[in-house]
Amino acid sequence: MIRAVMIDDELHCLDTLSILLKEYCPDVQLLEKCQSAAKGIEAINKLKPDLVFLDIEMPVMNGFEILEQFPEISFAIIFTTSYDQYAIKAIRFSALDYLLKPIDPNELVSAVKKVREQRQLPVAEQFQMLLSQIQEKNHHFKKVAVPTSEGFELVPADQVIRCEADDNYTHLFLKNNSKITACRTLKEIEEQLQDFKSFLRVHHSYIVNLNEVSKYIRGEGGYLVMSDGSTVNVSRSRKDALMRFF
């Protein structure tokens, strides 16, 4: 059973999410619904939940400012937000989860499943990445948080040569000849990397760092030879986007 607290200043959002949890996530025990930051902080300190559903846009103190009140984050977090491109980008970069309002039941089930299956809580560096991006909008990340079966690794983006899909996992191949397996789909990794302009999805199974391309071999879609000697197929539908870059 996952013990959860909700924090959202809009009552109808609290009620809607609680109904969805009851119907689609019966293993989530809702401990308390909090309509203000102060009550949310009090509930977290008192109840010690496993999971907090945290609204980002709230009066007096937003969701990120609430997190700053805790010297250590001892709970999983799923942010809930209306569309805010900047906040969503920061959340993706730090490999944390969010739900876009109005909340889709399938996305809720998927987010809760990740919480259920994760072996470790998010690490402090993820929240530091998130908060620094929110506080200083001109700041650009140089690293990306990669969730693994053991926790998280912070990887310099320029060290990634290519990413390869493996069902619900993604393998990241690095310049030092090592490989990291991320507990994320290639689509999720693509979203994390989208602000790094050198990364391009060239196939349904591959993303490449274009700075690490050594050669392009023509064909129906063709293929790329990367700096580590590996080859990556280019799908016909994505060939034009690749050619535009070159």
From TrEMBL:
Presence of the UniProt keyword Phosphoprotein in the record: yes
Pfam families for this protein: LytTR, Response_reg
Domain Response regulatory: 3-116
Entry keyword set: Phosphoprotein
Domain (HTH LytTR-type) ranges: 144-246
GO molecular function: DNA binding; phosphorelay response regulator activity
Record InterPro entries: CheY-like_superfamily, LytR-like, LytTR_DNA-bd_dom, Sig_transdc_resp-reg_receiver
Residues bearing the modification 4-aspartylphosphate: 55
Name of the protein this chain belongs to: Response regulator
Gene source species: Paraflavisolibacter caeni
